[in-house]
Specification:
- The chain folds into 2 domains: 46 residues, no CATH class; 48 residues, no CATH class.
- By secondary structure, the chain is mostly helical.
- The protein is built from 5 helices and no strands.
- The longest helix is centred in the middle third of the chain and has 12 residues.
- It is 47% helix and 0% strand.
């Protein structure tokens, strides 16, 4: 027995399996038309690093790689941010400028 249309939108006839197989942007478009929002423009971003943490051993290994010159400062900082050691809003470029200013003696605490 064939499942009837799950989402009753005039130009869309999809069952649940078809719907869940669609890219997120297309799903939002279908849902928006269903609730009569015809001009919805959506962009979906999925953070694949959700819940990534860092153990003490991993932090030590990254720090050692940085000290030995096997890892650039930029990559080191990006990895610390990705693993939630640094806050989500941490600006790596702004931090680099601030560190340089401190090294030049332009900033004092």
């Amino acid at each position: 027995m064939k499942e009837e249309s799950w989402l009753p939108v005039s130009r869309w006839t999809v069952d649940r399996a078809q719907f869940t197989a669609l890219p997120p942007e297309e799903r939002f478009t279908i849902i928006s038309e269903y609730v009569l929002v015809c001009d919805l423009s959506s962009k979906v971003s999925i953070n694949a690093d959700y819940g990534v943490t860092m153990s003490t051993e991993e932090l030590q290994a990254l720090s050692t790689a940085r000290l030995l010159g096997d890892l650039s400062l930029e990559e080191f900082m990006h990895e610390l941010k990705r693993r939630n050691v640094l806050r989500a809003g941490f600006d790596i470029e702004a931090n680099e400028l601030q560190v340089q200013a401190e090294a030049d003696g332009a900033v004092s605490i």
